[in-house]
Design goal:
It is found in: Membrane. The chain has 27 helices and seven strands. The strands form three sheets. The protein has a three-stranded mixed beta sheet with strand order 1-3-2. Helix 10 runs antiparallel to helix 15.
Amino acid sequence: MSAAEHGIEATLPALAGDNAVAQAPTTEKVFGESEKALSVTPDGEEPNDEENKSLRHVAENLPLSAWLVAIVELCERFTYYGMSGLFQNYVQRPLDGSQGRGALGMGHQGATGLTTFFQFWCYVTPIIGAIVADQYLGKYKTIVLFCGVYLVGLLILVCTSIPGALENGAGLGGFIAAVLIIGLGTGGIKSNVAPLIADQYKRKRMAIKTTPKGERVVIDPALTIQRIYMIFYGAINVGSLSLLATPYMERDIGFWSAYLLCLCMFAVGTLIVILGRKYYVVRPPQGSVITDAFKALWIMVINRNMDAPKPTWQAENGGTRTNLPWDDHFIDELKRALVACRVFAFYPIYWVVYGQFSSNFVTQAGQMQGHGIPNDLMQNFDPISIIVFIPILEAVIYPVLRRMKIRFRPISRISLGFIVASLAMMYAAIVQHLIYSAGPCYDSPLCEASEIDGTAQGNRVHIAIQTPAYVFIGLSEIFASVSGLEYAYTKAPPSMKSFVQSMYLLTNAFGSAIAEALTPAAYDPAIMWMFVGLAVASFLVGIIFYAIYRHLNAQEDAMNALDADDPDVPVPRVISDKKEEN
């Protein structure tokens, strides 16, 4: 292990602070008075070590403000998925005079390339939103600002998708301008809305509580954050059910009508953000925290020591940097954030798999007989599976595991998510093989032999057979994506919540870049082997991920305890220039 790695690993137990030592009873006291301790600790106070191990851990209910943030996210995701879920058809198919058949006529690879670029752009821009929020405006004002940007992009998309605009050649230029602006808007919102919902929950420490049935339990803030992000992700997927409506609007009226619905829904979400202002817990920006973080990282690199940016280290080791604008605690927080960012390094492969459901899966569905079902409607089985499985996991599976004293930690959940995603790809490869094995076109789907009244019908495979692939993707999201959001929030220091969240989202952009590189393989019959390759890659990544990071499960409580002393509105850890001058 390198000195740098040793620094970050060895410091973690100490990062729990002197508080952990001061507040925990001695081993002799715990084991000598365990029965007495269990009966005398008052409700509302922290559990001792014996209680922490023996009592059941539970989560609290969400405050009203958290539900408001969840509704805002629901509206944004309604817009995002209802709109972007149509992009594959909008770009791939030509404008042939019939409603909803297509618009830009750029073919399969052109459509996959542009939709993948849109996904890439949407997950690069959160860095901009994070910097604006953490350094200048705060999360709430940044969300309001980027809502305005988002609305402008939606308006351009609606106006350039009306039949007259498409016939006069405004479609491609309008589409590119719209996705650039919408991507900027959604990025600014995504990096801030996820930490904002968790900010609404104020408890930092565990506490004893007696239930109405007389059972003594431990209120665990980490479990409440897990519940918050489960509900948050549920709201995301309820919103994404907009794809139950927009494909039919695309087919029966035109793309413009579906985009207009998305614009109206987003306007409702923006209104909720503005009118609900007085209910939110809003934390102020923390000054130059992002730029200072990069400066500290540079000092770590050139000194090959994780503690080198600390003022005390500089003083003890004869360092030349004696006027640093931060304290030792800021560097401890930054080191914890680096642990989270290191965990995120494996996510790009997962996002390549995840991105298939809105691109190549749509094309695959179009190669089968739809029996009246639009090919882009099948995407709804992803959010439907999430909406079904989240309550089952939250109300049944996870409580049973806790009663059995099995701690299903984030690292384990993320690894399982990667493995379940590999099942989705393997199933997609099997479906593709079935398509190529069926007539009338075999490995050249949508050939002239399948046309009826000038419209290709696909090979003789029922479109519903694709459903399990979406179910596997949805189930993998609950483990991998929800746990990633949770990990990004709980491991980020208070001053860098949005920035660490943007680092997590950036892995999606890297995944989109990899998917963009795979675009040349998105043709028949090579795409079946691309699905096989992704299945193998995702499975191996899940195993390797667990092997490398499983030790972090044991450090989970210590890392989460770092914020226990921070007040509801944290005092910036960075020392201002004015204070330094004094």
